[in-house]
TrEMBL record, chain A:
InterPro entries: MetI-like, MetI-like_sf. It holds the Pfam family BPD_transp_1. PANTHER family: ABC TRANSPORTER PERMEASE PROTEIN, GLUCOSE IMPORT SYSTEM PERMEASE PROTEIN GLCU. It is a multi-pass membrane protein. Residues 129-321 form the ABC transmembrane type-1 domain. It is found in: Cell membrane. SUPFAM superfamilies: MetI-like (SSF161098). This is Carbohydrate ABC transporter permease. Keywords: Membrane, Transmembrane, Transmembrane helix, Transport. The chain crosses the membrane at residues 61-82, 135-155, 164-185, 191-216, 237-260, 302-320. Belongs to the binding-protein-dependent transport system permease family. Residues 31-52 are annotated as: Disordered. It comes from Roseibium aestuarii.
From TrEMBL, chain B:
Gene3D superfamilies: Periplasmic binding protein-like II (3.40.190.10). Keywords: Periplasm, Signal, Sugar transport, Transport. This is Probable sugar-binding periplasmic protein. Residues 1-22 form the signal peptide. Part of a binding-protein-dependent transport system for a sugar. The lineage of its organism: Bacteria, Pseudomonadati, Pseudomonadota, Alphaproteobacteria, Hyphomicrobiales. The keyword Magnesium does not apply. It holds the Pfam family SBP_bac_1. Belongs to the bacterial solute-binding protein 1 family. SUPFAM superfamilies: Periplasmic binding protein-like II (SSF53850). It is found in: Periplasm. InterPro entries: Bact_solute-bd_prot1, SBP.
Automatic annotation (TrEMBL), chain C:
The keyword S-adenosyl-L-methionine does not apply. SUPFAM superfamilies: MetI-like. InterPro entries: ABC_transporter_permease, MetI-like, MetI-like_sf. Keywords: Cell membrane, Membrane, Transmembrane, Transmembrane helix, Transport. This is Carbohydrate ABC transporter permease. It comes from Roseibium aestuarii. Residues 73-288 form the ABC transmembrane type-1 domain. The chain crosses the membrane at residues 21-43, 76-98, 110-130, 159-184, 205-230, 269-289.
Amino acid sequence: MTKTPHLLKNSLKFPQPELEPVDTTVAVATAATPTPSGTRSDLEPGPRGRKPARRFSRRNLFIYGTLTLVALYYLLPLYVMVVTSLKGMPEIRLGNIFAPPLEITFEPWVKAWSEACTGLNCDGLSRGFWNSVRILVPSVILSIAIASVNGYALANWRFKGAELFFTILIVGAFIPYQVMIYPIVIMLREVGLYGSLTGLVLVHSVFGMPILTLLFRNYFASVPEELFKAARVDGAGFWAIYFKIMLPMSLPIFVVAIILQVTGIWNDFLFGVIYTKPDLYPMTVQLNNIVNSTQGVKEYNVNMAATILTGLVPLSIYFLSGKLFVRGIAAGAVKG
Amino acid sequence: MKSIRTTLVAATALCGVSVAHATDLEVTHWWTSGGEAAAVAEFAKAFDATGNKWVDGAIAGSGGTARPIMISRITGGDPMGATQFNHGRQAEELVEAGLMRDLTEIAEKNNWKDIVRPASLLDSCTLDGKIYCVPVNIHSQQWLWLNNSVFEKAGVAVPTNWDEFAAAAPKLEAAGVVPLALGQQPWQTTLAFQVLLVALAGPDAYTKVFGDKDAEFAAGPDMARVFQAAATARDMAKNSNVQNWNDATTMVITGKAAGQIMGDWAQGEFQVAGQVAGKDYTCLPGLGVNEVIQTGGDAFYFPKVDDAAITEAQGVLAEVMMSPETQVAFNLKKGSLPVRGDVDLNAANDCMRKGLDILAKGNVIPSPDQLMSADSLTLVNDLFVEFFNTPSLTAEEAQTRFASIVEEAD
Amino acid sequence: MAAMARPARWHRNISAKVAAIPMIATALCIFIGGTAWTVVYSFTNSKLLPKESFVGLRQYERLWGSSKWLTSIENLAIYGAFSLIFALVIGFLLAALLDQKIRFEDTFRTILLYPFALSFIVTGLAWQWILNPDFGVQAVVRGLGWESFTFDPLYNPDIVIYGVLIAGLWHETGLIMCLMLAGLRGIDEDIWKAARIDGIPTWKTYLFIVIPMMRGIFITAIVLIASGIIKVYDLVVAQTGGGPGIASEVPAKYVYDAMFLSQNLGQGFAASTMMLLTVVIIVVPWAYLEFGGKRK
């Protein structure tokens, strides 16, 4: 890894928390590992930047003030969506989108989940929820399995030509999906997977591959070489090292990969609708149908409720994973 | 194989609609709004009554979202049982590629040639003498919708044609009303232009431009007048900043705007708002000048499949869609006109009757979808959306560009 | 030691190559194959279905003669430049703020990051609403008494792309902030100590010492942002539909519209080939240096 900051490099290779046998309690590691130079675990709220200043100083006021303002700005759209989804249509037409509802109604939520019509099917988003899960689970598992093994091979078992393919892959990350629609229809048709869940899972794996491989490759490259060598000395092979050494200490990067894939696949509309059949259509298809109905009166409250409902799965994963995400991102991205 | 299919088709024909062979038939379409869904439900109901089962595959977001999905399904070798397209040239290539089922036999047996009116509808479904689709409705675009009370308040008589409307614009503006509501989406601006073209220059001019692709005529003085009128319309609509057509209609209903040029589907909005035709709002077909309507509409195509049961169900559905009862039930809900002239529409309101009268008189012109390829139409759309949104683009310049599009068009 | 650490080369190659088969297949079949297919068919006049009727460069002539395409390119340039700069700068500043040993860091971080969990469609719709002059920000400010206040980016062709930018940044800066924060956490405390001893001001330490050390992070961030910029489509569709007029068209939308609205596959392929060409010209040399070159 060429671009590792030099100081880090010299400081006897990362005694990073990831090396601890999988221990989800995030930040203990630094203390436990003898770290000569104070590389902190990624999220430990250790001293950062400058020397901690006194509370209530002007500097603190500035920091908290700015962050609070920014946070309010970031929360604004969510606030608008939630507030709108709790209003009745007459109230929405009258008014100010920022005003809290005068009269709270959960009807739009009920409607979005179980009553909104798509053509003749009036069962709202609920119809697509399980389909989304059915698509999500195998796609996430397969794409991450492939990308992690790939990243591992690229980082630790380099072979001639590997970097070339990797470069192609990275360039592939920049190709707009629309361009690939027809070639993939043709390929899937030729292998007989068109319209099946398997086909869609493969498509998701393919398009998730560039970024995921990049992250895994960077992560595995940051694992101390000594560890790898020691395993080789013990006679462990490619798969043994992957399963016995790499996997157990890769929780953070897997969390990142899971989050990215869950977000991407759950929010996908285009692939879901083009490469499957109606009985497999994901939730986003219903969302599109509810939100995009071109004729008739737009029920903004139902749209907003549907929108929030559809976003709940990725949102809750974000809220639950919390620190692990940043920790994983750190490990996967720091080393260029 | 072919003979089996022929036999089956013949069998279907013999047994007619009455025999129940329970087959699930997946039908894709992009009708998802309240009124549209209610209309589709009529098809589904009638089809289910034959003992088969309508499996609904609705995709919202208009044809632009739905069509790639449908085309992918058909070319991907996993076709649905039936699918909506706007008739005209959208599905031409799928037919040429042999992916669509030939419906000629069913059409002949049921005499579609005689009952479908105007005949141009069936022509659009015909390629090399064979019929490939079922037209289900007629949507006309040539309407000017006016809010009567706005004109009263501004102290002007409700216009009876476009020129009066344009003349009333200053007074309307003085009264704080946007004279013309116009959604900013490309198709709406093109629609406004086409309607002006047919109304002010006449149906022949329209056919010359869109049908014969006569570039010289498109660059000529008759068309110059139309472009000037379009510039006037642009001016009248300069304070209208909505995107969707129904938002524009809402501006008219609520009195923020005085009028809108829009297809007959706008009427549904007035009805939902509880307004009465003739009393609360006025509709002027052909902008009150040339009372002609375009006969665009929707049609259903049936992809070729290997499954005999599905093939049979397709035939049943085609017949059901054309049957008089279904035509009436469907079109009343959809707000469009039926494709057969021999049905009775008692429930139709004032504006719909005006449309029916014009249809009966035969004052019809084909829709642009029937005349021009989707590709050329997009170029036209792009030009007009730019024109209506760029006050600095002059009528003359737009006309020159329009003429060159017409010259290249196919 | 060497013999043990480095087993016979072929052996080592085999496992890794087997493991890399999916990647190689994807790179060759999908990315190279699909791209080649697209390029080939960009020279045809394919309409609804791909057809091998070659027409030379006609699709390209038409592409560059189209004002919609030119507007798309211009918008992408504006959106891309600002998006890249602002996402990096804002992301870094926010990360630096969060990195000051503050309380509630988790809360702030979660708030900044959550938009990334939402799809672009959702982002576009929410912002379309907030920026709507009739009941969004403009209406509210006017309601407070400032009657002449005008803020309607989505309805003004001159600035509509900035309206899209606001939403785009809202969506992605959280993720960039996380990356930056991760990078800052990887900076050795000794560096800060040394900088302080030398009396270097904080901002200088950040600018000249810390940022250069975070090169890897910046690269990952740029790959993420840039690949998103090129593909920006859903956001525009949901927020403006490309309007008013054609003022907020973007290349990915041009491609999609050409292929599926106007049923002119050839034109869509030509436009996407141009996009690919741009990507290749910019990305390939960099990617090769970055990933393909010799490593230390």
